[in-house]
Amino acid sequence: MTELDLTNLKNSIDKLKESINAYKSIQDETIRSFIEDSCVKRFEFTVETSWKMMKKYLKLEYGKTDKELTMNNIFRLMEGYGFINSWETWRNYYDRRNDTSHEYNNEKSKKILAIIDDFYNDVDSLYNNLKKAVENK
Length: 137
What we know:
With 137 residues, the chain is mainly α. It has helices at residues 7-25, 29-62, 71-80, 87-102, 106-135. It is globular and about 50 Å long.
């Protein structure tokens, strides 16, 4: 397998964690609202980076084609290969990402903030699983 460069995924996860930590620690409501926006944008970016990395991995490792790699299939395959726990959960992350990237509003951002810790844990697990797979090649 051509080496999979996980740098962008790792960087997006680290930036997401910075935003989450800041959001949880800031009490000033004005600053907190700016950080909330940052959390949502970093969530969107990290979801995007994640599914693209999954797709790239499936192409490199398993020879999958673009036609085979619909969004649901990407998540199903990654669950089947043990890289993620639930394709439905990842589909939900992707849908929430689409919600806010196409029409941002406070209600939609609150839905992301409600799942952002779970997403962080899941994307960190994905990264670690991909890293192990790359290191074992």
